[in-house]
Amino acid sequence: MCFLLHSVPRLPIPLTSAAGVSLSVFSLLFISPTLSASPSPSCPDLPCVLFGANPLSHSPNLLGETVRSGQTFDRIMSSITGLQVKSLRIGVEPVEVELDEDAGILWTSLQTAFPGCSGMYYRERGDLCKKSVRFDGKKFMAPGGAWNDREYYVTLSQRCHAATGNPGHTASYSDATKQFEKSVQAVQKMMLASGMKIDMSHLTKKRQHTSSRETASSTSSSTVTPDPIQAIEERSQMLKNAGRDLSPLEQQFLDLCRISTAKDQIIDSNRQEISKLNETLRNLEKNLKENEMNLKEANAMVECKQQELDMVSEALKRLEESRHTISELNQKSGDLEGNVTELQLKLMHFEEENQGLKANLETSHNRIKEMADSISMLTSSKDILAKELDQLRPFAEAAGIEDYENIPTFIHAIQENKELQKVNEKMKIETEESKENSKQMQSIHAEVFEENAKLRNRNEDLERRFAHVDDELTCVNENWAKELKEKQQDWDKIKYAAESEVLSLREQLVHLQSILESATREAAENARRVSELEHERHEIRRLSDAVHIKTQEELTRQVRILKERLAESDSQVAELNVLVSSLAADATASRREISDLFSR
Asked: Taking Cα atoms as reference points, which of 372, 386, 388 lies closest to residue 437?
């Protein structure tokens, strides 16, 4: 992950009276910049100073006119342009800085991107107040836990300002001057050691052409910036047209220039290839997002079909519940019919018991009447016999035994008396028996009377109970009839509703079965499409991951190679700058000597 950081974007710098920029003012704003002149992209007529630029790539027309150490910044600016301006706008390019694993910016990464920086700050939208980024001693932490969409700036250090009286600039320029003189001397020694001789004859032949070319180059260098390859080719063509062979050092210099230019072209092509790979990666991510959207739509359709299946299953459950309710109602109706039948059987049993009790009561009444009649007959016969006996006793006393005439009558009377005695005895026995029977009958009668009273009471209770039972049975029958009628009506209603509901549910079931079949087909088709989409998504993810990994590895490798090449090219460019500056100094000195010779 990269993060874009800015320095102070653009600062207007006032010029001196000689149309130059004071180094103290320049170093007051920026620390150790690498200078190169190029027109401002926003103002083509206004030159500006870029930081970290390549002098060879930005101003190839200065190959023969290098900026030498020891010169003041005013002379540099006067050599770059001849326009009389009063201020310059100088900017620092933004740099993308990678975040670490904890989404922080390391101090070393920030120092590498912005040498000499001392802190970071940002501004909220619509707020002019600066807000510093928290620093824990090693890295800068995200404000509020997230970097969000803000523009962050770095604060450049103030330790190298010339206003503090630091003589570092003078020392650095003096050291650079000494180093440049040593480089010039080393190049001169190399040229003398190689035995290279400078042929001056071509200068006399081509003096006018060279002077006109120098004038054209001096006038064009301030306004245009030609292609570096064209400048190198023109330089080599000019040397070839001079009528002499190139020395090994010059040939090496041209080869180094071509190599540097080729490296720049390779770097540009690699950058273009990286941009193409990034575009391809973005297209793959776009396709992946589209496939994910299609997968989400398919998942939504599957969920919708699943909801329809749930609705169908819920309807089937309701149908089963209605069937279960109907079966329960049928069972309850059967139970009620059984209860009614049982109550009717109980009522019939009670009626039979009542009839039996009535028959027993009538039988007991008849027996009591018969026994009362027999007792009354025995009592009347006893009374008759007692009367007869009372009548015979005075007759026997009055008759006496001496009355022989009446003996047969007496005998007959005695016999009759004996017979009567026997009869009397029998009657006594019978009377006793009758008494006993009477007593027994009385006891039986008392028992029967008691039993009869009990039976009467029981009969009355039973009659009351039966009357109440009849009322209760009538009420129960009426209630049961009403309940049965209501239940029958409810049952008819429930049956009609259940039948209608069953018919509607059957219709719905048929409809739902058709929907279920279509939903099943669609679900199978959606499942197949989902599986295909998931397979395509996995394949796309695998390909994207492989492409991402491959592109990341390739980009990392290419970036590493490009960094190495860039470092090599920077070192070679630095060497070439030194060589070019030395050669330009030698060429300038030789021109001056030749001009002095011709003037003499």
From this structure: 372
The crossing angle, in degrees rounded to 10, of helices 248-399 and 228-241 is 160
- Coil, helix or strand at residue 270: helix
pLDDT digits (tens, 9 = 90+) for 161-192: 444 444 444 556 567 667 766 766 666 666 56
What are the pLDDT digits (tens) for 533-586?
A: 777 777 777 776 776 677 667 767 777 777 777 677 667 667 766 766 666 676
Do 562 and 281 contact (CB within 8 A), yes or no? no
Query: How far is residue 74's CA from residue 80's CA, in Å, rounded to a whole number?
Result: 10
Eight-class DSSP state of 86? S
* Amino acid in the structure at residue 306: Q
What digits encode the pLDDT tens for the residues 479-500? 777 777 777 787 777 777 777 7
Nearest to residue 281, comparing CAs of 38, 504, 544, 530?
544
Q: Is 225 exposed, middle or buried (0-12, 13-18, 19+ CB in 10 A)?
A: middle
User: CA 560 to CA 571: how far, in whole Å?
Assistant: 16
User: 60: which DSSP letter?
Assistant: G
User: Could you give the CA distance from residue 92 to residue 6 in angstroms, rounded to a whole number?
Assistant: 7
- Which 8-state DSSP code applies to residue 16? -
DSSP assigned state of 404: -
* 32 Rama class: left (phi>0) / alpha (psi -120 to 50) / beta: left
Nearest-angstrom CA–CA distance, 236 and 63: 13
pTM of this structure: 0.23
Which one is predicted more confidently, 413 or 222? 413
Cβ-based neighbours of 394, under 8 Å, separated by 6 or more: none
- Give domain limits for the chain: 1-165
pLDDT in tens, 369-415: 787 787 778 778 777 877 776 776 666 566 554 454 554 565 665 66
What does DSSP assign to residue 141? P
Is residue 135 within 8 Å of 102, Cβ to Cβ? no
CB 131 within 8 A of CB 122: yes
